[in-house]
Amino acid sequence: MTGTAFIAPDGGVRVEHVSKSFGPPDARVTVLDDVSLTIGMGEFVSVIGPSGCGKSTLLKVVAGLIEADSGTVTIGGEPVAAAARDKAIGLVPQAPALLPWRTVLDNVRLPLQVNRRANAGRALRDPSELLTSFGLGHAMRKYPGQLSGGMQQRAAIARAFVFDPAIMLMDEPFSALDEMNRDQQRLGLLDFWQSNRKAVMFVTHSVPEAIMLSDRIVVMSAHPGRIATVIDVDLPRPRAEADYATDAFRDLEAVVRGELHRVMEAAHA
Amino acid sequence: MRDTETIDATAAVAAVDIAETRAAGGRARRTRLDWRNWVPTAITFAVAALLWQLVAWSNPYVIPTLDAIWANLVANPAMYWVNFLVTLQEVLVGAASGILAGFALAVVMAEFRIVERAVMPLVVVVMVTPIVAIAPALVVAFGFGMMPKYIVTALVVFFPMLVNSLAGLRDADPKALDVLRTLHASRWEIFRDLRFPGCMPYVFAGLRIALPLAVVGAAVAEFVAAGQQAGLGSLVTTSAAQANLPVTWASIALLCLLGVLLVSLLALVRKRVLWWSDGEPVAR
């Protein structure tokens, strides 16, 4: 199912010693300080941390939207720019960012209509089938303005899956939704991903969300943004809603919260 | 929730649906015949007309009565029609040129910032020069034909189109832009799929300012070349010079009608094209 033919054997994401600072020379703020991280093929990695820890900046560097001051990022063994040229990166931004003048179906078709050169030789998905599997089959001909926030965000995720990218970058995709809706979307994504394994970098500020979805959780500290620790989530897959209630889940939650707490304490000390 | 609506609706039907929902603006939907829609407007116009008549009856040398204006209009339909067409042509040709030129320059400026830096100061200098002052100079340069009228009309339309289009092209949704950039979409693809359709609310806001200005431009250009060419603006100046007030005011009324027609037509087109947009953006 996952057409990953064009990925080098050392596929996935490799972030090595990436640093980034912003601002004028006399008031420079270091947002990322020597961050290294790998995401293997088919691995789901969440990045969590207090605001200002640079998690969104890290995602933008991996997406090739921001250039790092130093360090390297490779995707499937290629530099980010080359990976973008091959359409190897699927981005799900914080807001759905659907085009309001296109139907949901035409929004999902958009990635197939640009940079067509990179369409050759890959397992492109059928947009309407994909939308159906995201539970949006009945809404395909509607316009984004007619959809609820959760449905819009699902369409945005479908838009990122449709061209079969090697890696998915998701920047707090559910943060704008209300809690009940958020949980529903999260489980929907889990379901879909478990049968369509891709390397995912998932930025979030929700501990249960990170645990439920991830293989590994990267905890970042702020000012400057550094990786504080990496926590393995060894809950068996496939996971489902019932896992929230297990002891293993609660134990992990305590561990992650403890790490976050430590990171925040250190920042205030 | 909206998901429960009929699902087999075609895109076209959906589009109309949204347009209607949007037009209703969240308030309870009113039918066109609801008295609240037209009675207040009608009262305002009636009061204004009455005041006009009161002044006209007691000061016949200041303004003519409405019935005198109307009588003059219906007595000379061919004369007014010919002049109306001349002004209409100036407005249409001039406005179309100004709109296209303004939009085209906006596209170039949006894509190449250096062009904006190079050209914008000159554009501003030209635009702060009173159009009334430029018009006579253009008549000297291009004669009493249609050309100076086209140029003046195009000039007044050009600036609001440029500024609004530029703001619209720059206002592309940054998150959607991020998505397209990660896909390595070309500049052209980003323009085609995001910037161009996305700037339309601004373009229509610009047109709302530009089209009434086009009528002003055409009329002013005709003032300058009065007595030589036809046109409602010329009719105003020549008849006013002869103190033929019914003709003056009938021409003014027709100029006003022309503006109303253009703005109404624009609102109609906007509703068709921009059903997806919430409201009118404000450029700078």
CATH superfamily of one domain in chain A: P-loop containing nucleotide triphosphate hydrolases
Give the tally of β-strands of chain B: 0
Q: What is the third-level CATH name, the topology of one domain in chain A?
A: Rossmann fold
Ends apart, CA distance between termini of chain A: 50 Å
Structural class of chain A: alpha/beta
Helix percent band of chain B: over 70%
Order of helices and strands of chain A: EEEHEEHEHHHEHEHEEH
Give the strand order of the largest sheet of chain A, numbering strands 1, 2, ... along the chain: 6-7-8-3-9-10
**Ranges of chain A with pLDDT <50 over ≥5 residues?**
1-9
- Domain count of chain B, please report it: 1
Largest interface: A-B, 39 and 31 residues
Round the mean pLDDT of chain A to the nearest integer and report it.
Answer: 90
CATH class of chain B: Mainly Alpha
Q: Kindly provide the radius of gyration of chain A, computed on alpha-carbon positions and rounded to a whole number of angstroms.
A: 18 Å
Stretches of chain B where pLDDT falls below 50 for ≥5 residues? 1-28
Q: Report the sheet with the most strands of chain A, covering strand number, pairing sense and barrel closure.
A: 6 strands, mixed
> What do we call the CATH homologous superfamily of chain B?
MetI-like
Instruction: Give the DSSP E fraction of chain B (strand runs of 2 or more residues).
Output: under 5%
For the termini of chain B, the CA-CA separation is 37 Å
List the total number of helices of chain B.
12
